[in-house]
Amino acid sequence: MTLSELEPGEIGIVKEFTDLEMSVKLMEMGCLPGEPVTVSRRAPLGDPISIKVSGYQLSLRKFEASTIILQ
């Protein structure tokens, strides 16, 4: 399952990434393997997605969220 498939209020744990370049950017923002992430809300058309990770809110495009594989 990927982060883009979670609904608001659901929690997942980052397992790995599908895109090497994107993974570097996401890890710099706190999306590290083993870190729990919660989907806070989605924009009306589904893009972007607001998540809570490492104690702060982060907004990601649906494409970016789809590169994060969860446990």
Describe what you observe in this structure.
InterPro entries: Fe-transptr_FeoA-like (IPR007167), FeoA (IPR052713), FeoA_core_dom (IPR038157), Transcriptional_repressor_C (IPR008988). The structure is a single chain. With 71 residues, the chain is α+β, with helices and mostly antiparallel strands. The protein has a single domain (3-70), classed as SH3 type barrels. Helix content is 20%, strand content 38%. It contains two helices and five strands; from the N terminus they run E-H-E-E-E-H-E. A five-stranded antiparallel beta sheet has the order 4-3-2-1-5. It is globular. The mean pLDDT is 91.
What is the fourth-level CATH superfamily?
Ferrous iron transport protein A (FeoA)
Going across the biggest sheet, name each strand in turn.
4-3-2-1-5
Radius of gyration (CA) equals 11 Å
* Number of beta strands: 5
Number of domains: 1
The H/E string reads: EHEEEHE
Query: Helical content, roughly?
Result: 10-25%
**CATH fold descriptor:** SH3 type barrels
So what's the CATH class?
Answer: Mainly Beta
CATH second-level architecture:
Roll
Major beta sheet summary: 5 strands, antiparallel
Count of individual helical segments: 2
End-to-end Cα distance, whole Å, is: 7 Å
Mean pLDDT rating: 91
Oligomer: single chain
